[in-house]
């Protein structure tokens, strides 16, 4: 019963479908957090994680372990450049293109978006990227902008030579010229403040998030994304997330989704 309460809490607060990660994974995460806190009674832990936002976020970090690296699915970033540089900026001279990465994990995706645009000659002042994640731990690492070898898995590492400096033997520090065009925010997709305060985005990267949701939560998530996306904007999703819940969108959105949604 206590396990079910924790699973219900995860679904209620962040939309996580327990079956997407497995009950065993959640149980292991709970046991690890209990051990870290010196808690032996799971009922007591349920009370703690229900009342403490900090503990809830620490549990999320154990349940959902991000698998990410720079320029994961490079085709998506090629499509991003074509849209922003060759279409949107030409049609909107003097305006700033707004982009969103959600969830941004430890920063590899939004920084890849920035490097792709800067490397293609897009001026830093002509775009800005908001990066959102539910994990304070992820955001802390993203803001540090220091990465180990595991974040560099693409065959072409010219971007690392151009935009990073050696921090130590095993880590690289991202140049300020890239990190300065990205702003990080602590929130999840279903936070009402996110919808209320955000203006429309011309580009949204939301890859490999919907796979953690059940059908009804996926529909709800797409509705939120639709509200955040400009009428002629572009949504990037993972291949596994291109479901029928996208039907009914404005035709230009659906067409662009088919063209530009790249898996990852």
From TrEMBL:
<dbReference type="Pfam" id="PF01739">
    <property type="entry name" value="CheR"/>
</dbReference>
<feature type="domain" description="CheR-type methyltransferase">
    <location>
        <begin position="1"/>
        <end position="242"/>
    </location>
</feature>
<dbReference type="InterPro" id="IPR050903">
    <property type="entry name" value="Bact_Chemotaxis_MeTrfase"/>
</dbReference>
<dbReference type="InterPro" id="IPR029063">
    <property type="entry name" value="SAM-dependent_MTases_sf"/>
</dbReference>
<dbReference type="GO" id="GO:0008757">
    <property type="term" value="F:S-adenosylmethionine-dependent methyltransferase activity"/>
</dbReference>
<keyword id="KW-0489">Methyltransferase</keyword>
<keyword id="KW-0808">Transferase</keyword>
<dbReference type="InterPro" id="IPR022642">
    <property type="entry name" value="CheR_C"/>
</dbReference>
<protein>
    <submittedName>
        <fullName>Protein-glutamate O-methyltransferase CheR</fullName>
    </submittedName>
</protein>
<dbReference type="InterPro" id="IPR000780">
    <property type="entry name" value="CheR_MeTrfase"/>
</dbReference>
<keyword id="KW-0949">S-adenosyl-L-methionine</keyword>
<dbReference type="GO" id="GO:0032259">
    <property type="term" value="P:methylation"/>
</dbReference>
């Amino acid at each position: 019963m206590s396990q079910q309460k924790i699973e219900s809490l995860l679904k209620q607060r962040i939309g996580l479908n327990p079956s997407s990660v497995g009950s065993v994974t959640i149980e292991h995460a709970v046991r690890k957090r209990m051990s870290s806190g010196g808690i032996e009674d799971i009922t007591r832990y349920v009370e703690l994680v229900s009342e403490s936002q900090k503990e809830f976020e620490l549990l999320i970090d154990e349940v959902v372990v991000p698998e990410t690296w720079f320029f994961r699915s490079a085709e998506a970033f090629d499509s991003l450049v074509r849209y922003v540089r060759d279409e949107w900026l030409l049609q909107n001279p003097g305006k700033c293109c707004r982009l969103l990465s959600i969830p941004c994990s430890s920063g590899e995706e939004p920084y890849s978006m920035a490097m792709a645009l800067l490397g293609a000659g897009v001026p830093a002042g002509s775009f800005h990227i908001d990066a959102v994640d539910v994990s304070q731990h992820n955001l802390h690492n993203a803001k540090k902008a220091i990465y180990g070898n595991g974040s560099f898995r693409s065959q072409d590492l010219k971007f690392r030579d151009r935009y990073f400096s050696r921090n130590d033997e095993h880590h690289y520090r991202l140049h300020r010229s890239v990190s300065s065009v990205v702003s990080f925010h602590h929130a999840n997709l279903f936070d009402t403040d996110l919808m209320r305060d955000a203006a429309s985005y011309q580009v949204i990267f939301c890859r490999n998030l919907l796979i953690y949701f059940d059908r009804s939560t996926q529909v709800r998530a797409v509705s939120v994304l639709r509200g955040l996306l400009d009428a002629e904007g572009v949504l990037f999703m993972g291949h596994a997330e291109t479901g029928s819940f996208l039907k009914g969108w404005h035709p230009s959105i659906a067409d662009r989704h088919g063209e530009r949604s790249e898996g990852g």
